[in-house]
Write a structure and sequence with these properties.
This protein is mostly helical and 68 residues long. It has a domain of 32 residues. The chain contains 2 helices and no strands. It starts with 14 loop residues before the first helix and ends in a 7-residue tail after the last helix.
Length: 68
């Protein structure tokens, strides 16, 4: 099996692509954090990062679905 290149792992090799990827990842983090707040009532200023990360990890296998 051939060794994977950085691009195949989801990373980027040139600066402009890196910047675009970083902006995209920040947008996705914003969306994930907003979802956590909506579903749990958690507050970033009052909660702990491990609560957010645990909830996020659990959503991969047992999603709560859209908030109504």
């Amino acid at each position: 099996m051939a060794e994977k290149t950085p691009v195949e792992y989801g990373s980027v090799t040139d600066l402009e692509s890196h910047k675009r990827r970083h902006v995209f990842l920040h947008r996705m983090l914003d969306e994930l954090l907003a979802d956590w707040i909506t579903h749990t009532g958690g507050r970033p200023s009052k909660g702990h990062m491990d609560e957010f990360l645990s909830w996020s990890n659990e959503q991969r296998t047992n999603p709560t679905g859209p908030h109504e």
